[in-house]
Amino acid sequence: MTPRWLGRLWDTSTGRFGAIIVVVIALTALVALFWTPFDPQASDIGDRWLPPSWPHLLGTDDTGRDILSLLMAGARTTVFVSIGAGLVATVVGIALATLGALTARWLRETVAVLVDILIAFPVLLIAMMISSVWGGSLWVVIWAVGIGFGVNIARVTRPELRRVQQSDFVLAARAAGVTPAQSLVRHLLPNVAPVFIVQLSWSMAVAVLAEAGLSYLGFGASVVEPSWGLLLADLQRYIGVHPLSVLWPGLTITITVLALNLLGDGLREATDPTLRHRAAEIHTPGVVA
Fold it and tell me: Across the chain, where does the E strand assignment appear?
């Protein structure tokens, strides 16, 4: 990631907004490892349903827990699931893309059929199926989202690998004695990295949404783990009486998923030269005769 590439990302409004929100969420998760305003799991019946005020800036829930502390602790879970799912998607996506682009024809076609089959199953459905066998946990969400979106990454990255493989500089390197493994590391993966990074950011957005949705349904985080989905599930029963309390976890999930998607759009605009040239043509005034 070069400074020039970062500068192009920062110049796009979507990329700038997404990057700022993602950094804020990551820093919140880091701070929550060491400090939260109150113990997220500490109940105080005397402080039930306090409105937003000092010292409970976002109020309290039905057991007197501080909502801000719960959201900060839930950010740890969100970041953990996002990074974990991203790592799994990276390994699965690169492995399938490499097998589907750089191997013998029969293996390439086999991998292509496998990818087409796996991509037909929604990520949430895969996670629920695994949860029904192994039980709900964050690891189930990580593996389900990682495998599910790794297949998507492989489908998008495979044709890019094939295109770069036919480039003159790659053919010249092979003629000079560079092995296929060396060519993959030195030439192929760096040239498809922009496409891969964009897909990875979107997979992390899916991971956030999947963790919240599965935890809400009881297939994700356990009841002893802080989670935005669990908090939303606990508070939605009181939406008719205390609607403001439900707003905070729902708004947090929405903004985080939106930020990751906008970051992906910003990355695509910053790394795709055809989009930059098209944008330049649109903003360049024509010459009036």
Answer: none
